[in-house]
Amino acid sequence: DRLGMTRTRFHSPHGLPPGRGQQPDVTTARDIAILARAVLGYPDALGYTSARERPLRGGKFIMRSHNRLLRDVNGCDGLKTGYYSKAGYSIAATAERDGTRVISVVLGSSRSRTRDARAARLIELGFERLQDLETAGDASASVTLGR
């Protein structure tokens, strides 16, 4: 795969739970982070993922995002939440502060609030670690797919 998502097998184009006779999509947090980083290469994507509400069909319907981090985490502007009974609650979240972006991925949570709390904490840890590097005098450091 061109992106390097070596542990992912998509069996559908939509990411929904598998239909009768279909195999489920399989992935890892690392591979979802790689995909998130690739999506961020398309700046228009954040225009969609950052919307907490969006009118559809001439305002007859309102789409509301399930991503509570858009409201609760400073700088959060995406990306995607999910739930599948066999896989639990998941999220790929991203936030930007002062020109620095962090991506957080949480898979397999038993509750959406647990997923959100873990993702928010990972975002905060990411910014803290980057601040530590800057404070240590290495302002040019960049972290890719860090742990």
Sequence-ordered SSE layout with sheet pairings:
Elements (H helix, E strand, L loop, with lengths): L28 H11 L4 H6 L3 E4 L4 E4 L4 H4 L3 E9 L3 E10 L2 E10 L2 H24 L12
Antiparallel strand pairs: 1-2, 3-4, 4-5
If you average the pLDDT, what whole number results?
90
Radius of gyration based on Cα positions:
16 Å
Q: Strand percentage, roughly?
A: 25-35%
Order of strands in the sheet with the most strands?
3-4-5
**SSE succession:** HHEEHEEEH
Distance between the termini: 22 Å
Number of distinct beta strands: 5
**Helix percentage:** 25-40%
Structural class: alpha+beta
User: What kind of sheet is the major sheet?
Assistant: 3 strands, antiparallel
Outline = globular
Give the number of helices.
4
Q: Detail the poorly predicted runs.
A: none
Summarize the entry for a quick read.
With 147 residues, the protein is of the alpha+beta class. Helices cover 31% and strands 25% of the residues.
Q: What does the model show?
A:
- This protein has 147 residues and is of the alpha+beta class.
- The protein has helices at 29-39, 44-49, 69-72, 112-135, and strands at residues 53-56, 61-64, 76-84, 88-97, 100-109.
- The strands form 2 sheets. Strands 3-4-5 form a 3-stranded antiparallel β-sheet, with helices on both faces. It has a two-stranded antiparallel ribbon with strand order 1-2.
- The longest helix is centred in the C-terminal third of the chain and has 24 residues, at 112-135.
- The two termini are 22 Å apart.
- The mean pLDDT is 90.
